[in-house]
Structures are given as C-alpha cells and as structure tokens.
Amino acid sequence: MTEPAGAKESQAREGFVPRSDRPHLARIDRLRRALGKEVVLLGHHYQRPAIVRRADFVGDSFLLARQASRAEARWIVFCGVRFMAEAAAVLARPGQEVFHPDPAAGCPMADMADPSDVEEAWETLTSVLGEEALVPVVYMNSSARLKAFVGDRGGLVCTSSNAERAFRWVFEKGKRVFFLPDEHLGRNTARAVGVPSGEVLLYTFREQGGGLEEDEIRRGKVFLWSGHCHVHVFFRPEDVERARRENPGCRIIVHPECPVPVVEASDASGSTERIVRFVREAGPGSTIVVGTEVNLVERLALDFPDRRVLPLAHSLCPNMYRINPKALADTLEGLASGAPRGAVNVEDSVRSGARKALERMLALPREG
Ligand code: SF4
Over the chain, what is the mean pLDDT? Predict the structure, then answer.
C-alpha cells in the first residue's frame, strides 16, 4: 500500500508511527481544533515524538511545572508520568483541572520513597542532628504526599535543572540536606557543589537506622535516599568507552540520574533541557552521544538531521511510553463530550504542603 501524501514528511517529524496509531493522531488533531483555548497540552521530553509534536509546551519537569502554574486554559492535559500531573494539579489555579491520559503511568523511582519510611528516616536523622539542622529536598520525581512532607518541614522540590541551586539554598542557611529519592542525582549534585564524598551518606531505607551509626550521621552534610531510576542506572562506564571507540571525536552527554562513574567518564551531564541545548549548540557535522531516555534521543536525531545524535545505549521508560495516541485522544474526547476521564485529584490535606515545596522551588534565584 502506498503512503498517503505527506506521510514521508510526517515520518521525518514523528519517527516511526505504527499504522494503528494514525487514526488516533487524526482524532487528537480534530479534538484539539474543537477544544481550542479551553485545553493546554503539556508534553515531557521523554514522550514519543508524535505526542511531543502535538503538545503546546514541551520541556523537562521544571519548565512544565512553571508552565502549569502559568497556564490560562481551563483544562491541562499532562503527557508525562503521574507525579508530574500531580504537581501540575497542586499548582493549578481554582477552577482549573488537570487530566492524565493513563493513571497507571507512574514512576518506579518515585515509588521507592514511601512517605512512612521517609518519616522514620527523618526521625532517625533529626534525633541525632536536631530538626533545625536538616532541610529535606525532594526531587520532582516523587508523590504529592512526599512533596507535602517536605514542604511542611521547610524544604523544597528540585529538578535536575535546579538541584545545585536547591542544595546551595540549604547550605547558605548553614544547614544539611536530606535528599530524596534519587541517590545518583543527589551524589552528582553534591559533587558539583563541592561537598567532599566522605560527607555524603547513603540512607539505606531497608536497613535498621538507614545503616548509619550516630557518629556517621554527625559528620554528614548530605544524606541520600537509596532510590534510583532504572532507565539511567542502565548506563555503564563501558558504554561510554565503547561509544568513544566507535565514534572517534564524538561528544558524550548524560543525565545526572546516571551513576557518578558514568557522569565522570562523559564530557558533560545535565537535565533534559541542558541535553537539548548541548545538541543544538554542537553544530552541523558533529556526533553527539546521549545517555538518557531513548525517545528524547530519537527526537533530537529527527530535529537535527545535519548531525549524528546517537543513544549511549537503548534505554526506554515504559511508563512514559504508556501515554499513547489512543489514551490522549480518549482523554480529549472525554473533555469535548462533557464526560471527562483521568482527572487528577490531590487531597486538600496534601495540597498545601506540596504547594509550599513547589513554590519554594519556583522562587529559587536564577544563577549565572
Ligand atoms: S525515566 Fe526514570 S525517573 Fe523518569 S519516569 Fe521513567 S522511571 Fe521515573
């Protein structure tokens, strides 16, 4: 069967689109036109290209949180994982509603920090250091309940694009950081702001007292929760060596959720926004190898056909991938037909603490 007119051009923009998705993409386009300014579509960088192309705003979790807090539309449809949609719901204005196309699209790393385990850890650490000495900093990749826990204790949310600023914010107050849930982002950030490795301690939540003795706790400046993102711990220093061997002269950038040895072996590391900038600035003819979720790498390769953009290894987030064209079209259909589905509700008891933690992040001063 021949491709319809324009299919080649659309393939260049959207990558491979299964035939079964095409009617749903057409439904999305039709429904977007019908809904007009009533709805705004936010898309995370890790979404498949066909979804990203249809989003009003594309970004990392920081930019999308900011966008959600400024959106004028009555309905926000969030194409990302659940914690992102929850953060948008926390920041939404009265009368605004947030919808998530697939409630099962969660984040395994966010689920590694159960608020009751975190509460126990907080008690262990503060019983030695005192409540005033410690500030919790929670990665955006966490439940609204955990953000509320942090917000209610004077802490803040951060993303991979402002984690260093968040750590400095704490240190400027003469306090120590309790960072959760991603050990690796915490380690890379502590390293970037110059905390000696001996003062960075891992709180292993499966062990009694986090596996830490009292005198260890007293010397700690940064305490890390032992969570990780399976998409990013997949990358190994050997992948970096192989990429350099196979692509002489290439530049390698990885996400800071990767383990420290991978970051150390690479040329640069940074948030998804920084990765996009790195590829844009690399210039035509260059080869850039990227260690992050493969959908972003695929889209960058489509967006910059005059340079080679290669994945460090093929690592996909199945939860991000759950947001498919059918799920998005069904969500829009629900809004257009007056039978909405997928509304994201955050309990009032959680909302105010989570909002405090998010607003502290949004108020962080810009650096450099
Ligand atoms: S890429 Fe990692 S941190 Fe992001 S949603 Fe997937 S599992 Fe969670």
Answer: 93
